Amino acid sequence: MPHLTTAATAAAATEAGRLGLGVPGYAHPLLAPVEWAELTRPGTPLHWTVLNVADGPGGRPDPHCTEAAGRLREAGGTVLGHLAMRDGARSFGELVSDAHRFLDWYRVGGFYLAGAPADRAELAAVRRVVDALRGLGEELHLVLGHGTHPYEGYADAADQLVTFSGAWADYRWSQVAEWTAEHPPERFCHLVHGVPRSHLEEAVRIARWQGAGTIWFTDRGDAGGRDPWASMPAYWDEIVSQIGPGVSE
Q: Collapsing DSSP states into helix, strand and coil, what is residue 22?
């Protein structure tokens, strides 16, 4: 099949544990109250969800976000603060300052570094940021949101890498980098929008074959500049049932 590169990759994914969900960032809790509430449902196979107040933590604590994050945390979920790297354009100081605010205001359990660079030349700078974030607390979960397969050295820089973020039309014919076969599925995440309900099972199979342990599939699209991640997929119950009950990491 076109989305397979090596037999080893397929075997690794087949033998992997249960898939889990990684929510790349619902809309503000006032605009998406049902979505945030659903994440606290017992048995939801949630690995983490990203809190993005205003392309980061915002300028002051938001009580609605504090409440939503607290409820999810009490339910055993992991909330990640959204740090906008903008492909390396944000400074080290800006990112660490945003991280401090997320920890102080929302007690996040880690960080999602959106727009993380993927080139070898940027690896040292990204490592510096990641090392600083790890120093902010024990057991913080760090996800590099590349959206594509980065230089393989990034695999040792964070807990997870987002190696695909995009449309179903591209995902169904995508190929996985061969070096990913050397790492377990829990190191990789795939985020796919525009997945029709009729292709949901196929999308799950591709994720397993390509060795992704965390996924987010939605039928929402990005037409007209819309954010496809802002609301839950129409087949939310179906995807939760397909993946099966799980616990937060």
A: strand
Q: What is the pLDDT of residue 245?
A: 62
Q: pLDDT tens digits, residue range 207-232?
A: 999 999 999 999 999 999 999 999 99
| Poorest-pLDDT segment among 13-22, 97-106, 124-133, 198-207 | 13-22
Burial code (b: 16+ CB inside 10 Å, e: under 16) for 80-112 equals bbbbbbeebebeeeebbebbebbbebbebbbbb
Rounded to whole angstroms, the Cα distance separating 176 from 228 reads 23
- pLDDT score of 8 more than 50: no
d(CA 230, CA 224): 14
| Cβ–Cβ under 8 Å, residues 52 and 78 | no
Alpha carbon dihedral 220, 25, 84, 81, in 10-degree steps, equals -170
Q: Which two tokens stand for residue 90?
A: 């944000």
Q: Can you tell me whether residue 207 is helix, strand or coil?
A: helix
Please spell the DSSP secondary structure of 107-126, one letter per residue.
Answer: --SEEEEET---SGGGHHHH
Assess if residue 248 is contained within a domain: no
Return the CATH number at 80: 3.20.20.80
Number of domains making up the chain: 1
Q: Compute the distance between CA of residue 127 and CA of residue 111 in angstroms, rounded to an integer.
A: 14
Q: Is residue 224 within a helix (H) or strand (E), and if so which, with residue range?
A: none
Which range of residues forms the domain containing residue 80?
Answer: 7-242
Residue 2 covered by a domain? no
